[in-house]
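Design job #97: recover the sequence.
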């Protein structure tokens, strides 16, 4: 089944009007992307240039134990820095020197900007170039994780976009596949085996597991997005000559098959071979999903904008679990990257972009959905009002892509309803 041949609802959402709102938002900041990125790039270190609030956020979000030594930290901006009484660049140079002396295993150091560093106009890109020259053997880059104008998944986008200029030029004249987006190692390994069985090679992943394993990019690179929130990274890769392969995202059995099909068609994989390679995985995924159908079928779900995963998730829940999306809110609707998703959404769902949180709360309360997907800041108040909620950030922390994770993805939405039904007994 190809992405273009997927059965569409009677009226998809590709031409549906979109409610665009610009008001008060409720989101995490981009610093939280470090939680999954520092686990992915095993010899990288993320140094946040921020306040004690940034440090507390990261410690709380990561749940770091006292005996663990994570690959991230915060260089604290205090009152003297904010008042201009200390030279922030000298302080930063000292902290980086101490860090690299203590951790000589670091091969890639990210200076991560925050709201406080942007307020005092600290130029981290210039600082990164200076420190890169000073510390041989460790590449120093910078990106912004500030939450002033972004949502939390855009931290990954900014990080990967910073890596693109470091990627070598592809010398091959044959097509090369580049999978873009941080994936759990088990998911990456599963996808590698599927691509190998399809005869698709070479295959690179961005981000890589090690800093010296950056894949090459060039005019023969075919770009397959694993995450829908990587607009800046995709733009940078396309400027290097890569060509995007439009596809639904690999969520659920149907989405994973369509995503793999996009690569298979670009490589000219014969249809019988594609079916032979994907049939068992798709069948296994559908069986795992079906175990949660009775709990979720017919239930109404409301998405607050948070991660940019909302549209692919709504497609998966509507088509594979028969849920009914009422409103699908997303921080930003990238029509080019979601072109294969929008026609597969139920036509009666409201699409909203951006946020005016008070108005959206009013619409949610009026609709009385069975399940609300939202950020942590809204979940507890809504639970107190009697709504079952799912934390959207959990959908980014948890491996959900691919055939073998499809059942786990369905379970994430079933679990709040199981808990709610248990409390009623």
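Job complete. Output follows.
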């Amino acid at each position: 089944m190809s992405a273009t041949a997927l059965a569409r609802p009677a009226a998809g959402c590709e031409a549906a009007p979109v409610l665009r709102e610009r008001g008060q938002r409720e989101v995490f900041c981009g610093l939280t992307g470090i939680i999954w990125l520092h686990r992915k790039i095993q010899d990288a270190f993320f140094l946040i240039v921020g306040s004690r609030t940034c440090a507390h956020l990261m410690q709380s979000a990561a749940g770091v134990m006292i005996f663990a030594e994570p690959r991230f930290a915060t260089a604290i901006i205090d009152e003297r820095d904010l008042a201009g009484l200390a030279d922030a660049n000298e302080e930063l140079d000292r902290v980086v020197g101490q860090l690299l002396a203590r951790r000589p295993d670091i091969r890639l150091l990210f200076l991560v900007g925050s709201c406080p560093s942007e307020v005092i106009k600290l130029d981290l890109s210039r600082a990164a170039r200076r420190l890169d020259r000073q510390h041989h053997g460790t590449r120093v880059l910078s990106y912004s994780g500030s939450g002033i104008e972004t949502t939390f998944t855009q931290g990954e986008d900014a990080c990967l976009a910073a890596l693109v200029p470091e990627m070598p030029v592809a010398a091959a004249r044959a097509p090369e596949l580049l999978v873009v987006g941080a994936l759990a190692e088990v998911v990456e390994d599963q996808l590698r085996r599927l691509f190998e069985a399809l005869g698709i090679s070479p295959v690179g992943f961005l981000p890589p597991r090690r800093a010296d394993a950056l894949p090459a990019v060039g005019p023969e690179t075919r770009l397959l997005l694993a995450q829908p929130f990587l607009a800046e990274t995709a733009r940078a890769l396309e400027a290097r000559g890569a060509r995007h392969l439009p596809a639904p995202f690999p969520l659920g059995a149907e989405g994973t098959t369509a995503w793999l099909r996009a690569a298979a068609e670009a490589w000219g994989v014969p249809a019988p071979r594609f079916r032979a390679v994907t049939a068992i995985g798709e069948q296994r995924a559908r069986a795992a999903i079906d175990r949660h159908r009775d709990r979720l079928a017919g239930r109404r779900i409301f998405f607050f904008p948070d991660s940019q995963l909302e549209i692919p998730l709504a497609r998966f829940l509507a088509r594979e679990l028969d849920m009914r999306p009422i409103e699908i809110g997303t921080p930003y609707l990238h029509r080019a990257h979601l072109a294969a998703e929008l026609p597969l959404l139920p036509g009666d769902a409201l699409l909203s972009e951006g946020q005016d949180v008070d108005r959206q709360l009013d619409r949610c309360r009026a609709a009385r959905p069975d399940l609300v997907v939202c950020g942590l800041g809204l979940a507890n108040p809504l639970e107190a009002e009697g709504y079952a909620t799912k934390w959207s950030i959990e959908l980014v922390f948890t491996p959900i892509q691919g055939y073998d994770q499809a059942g786990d993805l369905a379970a994430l939405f079933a679990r709040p309803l199981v808990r709610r039904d248990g409390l009623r007994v």
